[in-house]
Amino acid sequence: MAEIHTPYSSLKKLLSLLNGFVAVSGIILVSLGIGGKYGGASLTNVLGLSSAYLLHTGNLCLVMGCIAVLLGCAGWYGATKESRGMLLFCILSMVIVLIMEVTAATVVLLFFPIVRDVALEHTFVTLRKNYRGYNEPDDYSTQWNLVMEKLKCCGVNNYTDFSGSSFEMTTGHTYPRGCCKSIGTVACDGRNVSTNVIHQKGCFHKLLKITKTQSFTLSGGFLGAAVIQRWGSRYVAQAGLELLA
Question: What family is this (predicted)?
Fold first, then answer.
């Protein structure tokens, strides 16, 4: 027997499609959250509290994404079962999620100038005081070793940051081997500062570039998801009222 198409069946399909868009926006947020937590932004840990907001925002992105996926599924279920209460719950919840996403995007954009202006001095002082090199690798030193090797840079501003630092007083070296272009070579002796041996540029501007990229990516993700969800929730509300009238 052929399927009978009615206005109600069309509305159900429309609601299912719209809730699918909401769920997809949630998946996008989850992906951005994972990227922010485990991707390049993890290198910015050496900036300390100045960049901690990125990791917290990544966690929030994960949470908001999961909530959006659940709301999309709940909305689909409500449309299928013609449940007025479920649809109303999803619409109201989506409004709250939208407000949180726009707020999070705004906070991320506002915090970046603070990182740019404050982090340099803080990172410089902390490096000179706490960095120990490769011989006694604590968590902080290990993070810096990874940054210098991955980003091909040396210190915060340049290799002179280690002059008079606790690292130099402990090891007698002018710079750690993470600054070397070829770690393990004879020339990489902790004293030869030739441009052929060590990276002359510091890491701060490269870390700041990662922070800037991540900030705009997360903000764009939040705002993009908010646009999709606002569009979806608006038509879900209209179609839901027609379906359940």
Answer: Belongs to the tetraspanin (TM4SF) family.
- For the stretch 93-123, pLDDT in tens is 777 887 888 888 887 777 777 766 677 788 8
Residue 188: CB atoms within 10 A of its CB come to 19
Per domain, the residue ranges of the chain are: 1-81, 84-244
The one-letter amino acid code at 199 reads H
pTM, rounded to two decimals: 0.71
Handedness of CA 154, 159, 163, 169 (dihedral sign): positive
* DSSP per position, the chain: -PPPP-HHHHHHHHHHHHHHHHHHHHHHHHHHHHHHHHSGGGGGGGGTHHHHHHHHHHHHHHHHHHHHHHHHHHHHHHHHHT-HHHHHHHHHHHHHHHHHHHHHHHHHHHHHHHHHHHHHHHHHHHHHHH---SSS--HHHHHHHHHHHHHT--SSSSGGGGTTSHHHHHH--SS-GGGBSSTTSTT-SSS---TTTB--S-SHHHHHHHHHHHHHHHHHHHHHHHHHHHHHHHHHHHHHHHHH-
pLDDT tens digit sequence for 44-54: 677 766 566 66
How would residue 22 be classed by pLDDT, with cut points 50, 70 and 90? confident
- Has residue 27 got a pLDDT over 80? yes
Which CA distances in Å does 99 have to 17, 96, 106, 187, 230? 23, 5, 11, 57, 10
* pLDDT confidence of residue 103: 83
